[in-house]
Design a protein that fits this description.
Elements: H1 3-8, E1 10-11, H2 22-29, H3 44-64, E2 71-74, H4 77-92, E3 98-102, H5 107-118, E4 122-126, H6 136-142, E5 147-151, H7 165-174, E6 178-182, H8 194-197, E7 201-205, E8 216-220, H9 246-261, H10 263-284, E9 288-291, E10 301-306, H11 311-320, E11 323-324, H12 340-344, H13 349-353, E12 356-359, H14 366-385
Parallel strand pairs: 1-11, 3-4, 3-5, 5-6, 6-7
Antiparallel strand pairs: 2-8, 7-8, 9-10, 10-12
Helix pairs in contact: 2-9, 3-9, 4-5, 10-14, 11-14
The protein binds pyridoxal-5'-phosphate (PLP).
Pyridoxal-5'-phosphate binds at residues 76-78, 81, 106, 108, 153, 157, 182, 184-185, 205, 216, 329-331.
Length: 386
């Protein structure tokens, strides 16, 4: 890619994945080459790698207000969700087979729940209101004596709404039901404190906060028993056997440290850019509606629909101009179905099919936002005439 291409590129898909920070890459680089030992080896190179993994565990745990022994390193958000939900369900199946989740979860939760339904579990999918916030009273009504697990995401990946997890926790705690939250879109964007939230299990993925792809973690509260997904060696207290991704783990710790150092300034900056985008679009483009909650959402996400415009057609037209956005989740790209999140919020299928997600990052600028507003002001009327 030459310089001209790079300057033209406007990346507003940071919720799908975000560019790694140079400092993160630098922190990882020695672990691909000089510090090459296997953390399970007894010799010095191995022990050096092990020390780096344990320091990273300490950093990540501190960022969540957890203990180091409560962190299990995984291969990303999907794996963390699988480990949490499968692991808890298989451990507790003799106690009960009922699980509660929401209808707006990422597929990395919904698909696990569907697989468990085929394995004899029953799953209740709770509704959300028109702004994408969980209906907490419906959770209270859904709880049964055989409910073993509740899994509700902390921040939604399509519309960014932040769910009232501590209200959920007050219900689950009362009844000794395990609570898992998928916090992939929240960690590094808003303060995440596992004890304030009251969760037993929490998933995160490094590439959502400018860390490396293919690296995640699961917080497992002390005393919570879950079964591993795979069998093998003794790594990660046997919950995630296999040689650790040492560069990935080191990079994730560097990324969370930087994200927390810059959390206040970045969230003010990104929120300001998002508001600038929404205001500009509102002023320049007719027939736009904003999906999700105006306030209770993470700063980086804006989801909008344009009346009589197909979201995918708009995405492709923006892409032709070097502007990257997405329709809902990257994992559903190519699907012709309207977003399950927007449908669950009660939007009609036409509007839900038109939903476009703009997700900003710390690297985006005012100039880019203005260029996107200009592009939308030109493209949307053109698409309407087709
Ligand atoms: C809310 C949420 N959960 C889970 C995932 C899956 O994470 P990963 O791609 O790291 O497996 C994502 C990423 O798209 C996400 O946004």
């Amino acid at each position: 890619m030459d310089r001209e291409d790079f300057v033209r590129d406007i990346y507003f898909d940071n919720a799908a994945t975000s560019p790694m920070r140079p400092e993160v890459l630098q922190s990882m680089s020695a672990f691909f080459t000089e510090i090459c030992g296997n953390p399970s080896s007894l010799h010095m190179p191995g022990q050096r790698a092990k020390r780096a993994v344990e320091e990273a565990r300490y950093t990540l745990a501190a960022s969540l207000w957890a203990e180091p022994q409560e962190i299990v390193f995984t291969g990303g958000g999907t794996e963390s969700n699988n480990l949490a939900i499968h692991g808890a369900a298989q451990t507790l199946r003799s106690r009960g087979r009922h699980i509660i989740t929401s209808s707006i979860e990422h597929n990395a939760v919904l698909s696990v729940c569907r697989a468990l339904e085929e394995d004899g579990f029953e799953v209740t999918y709770l509704p959300v209101d028109g702004s994408g916030i969980l209906d907490v009273p419906s959770l209270r009504d859904a709880v049964r004596p055989d409910t073993i697990l509740v899994s509700i995401m902390l921040a939604n990946n399509e519309v960014g709404t932040i769910q009232p997890i501590n209200e959920v926790a007050s219900i689950t705690r009362e009844r000794s039901i395990l609570l898992h939250t998928d916090a992939c879109q929240a960690v590094g964007k808003i303060p995440v404190h596992v004890h304030d939230l009251g969760v037993d299990l929490l998933s995160l993925a490094a590439h959502k906060f400018h860390g490396p792809k293919g690296q995640g973690a699961l917080f497992v509260k002390k005393g919570t028993r879950i079964k591993p997904l795979f069998q093998g060696g003794h790594q990660e207290r046997m919950l995630r056997p296999g040689t650790e991704n040492v560069p990935g783990i080191v990079g994730m710790a560097a990324a969370i440290r930087l994200a927390l150092e810059d959390l206040d300034s970045d969230s003010v900056r990104v929120r300001r850019l998002r508001d600038l985008l929404e205001r500009g679009v509102q002023e320049r483009v007719s027939g736009v509606s904003f999906n999700g909650h105006g306030e209770k959402r993470v700063p980086q996400i804006s989801n909008m629909s344009f009346a009589s415009v197909d979201g995918e057609a708009l995405l492709l037209a923006l892409d032709m101009r070097g502007i990257s956005v997405s329709t809902g989740s990257a994992c559903n790209a190519g699907s012709t179905e309207p977003s399950h999140v927007l449908r669950a919020m009660g939007l009609d299928p036409g509007i839900a099919r038109g939903g476009l997600r703009f997700s900003l990052g710390r690297q985006n600028t005012d100039v880019e936002v203005n260029a996107v507003i200009e592009a939308l002001a030109e493209i949307v009327p053109q698409l309407r005439t087709l």
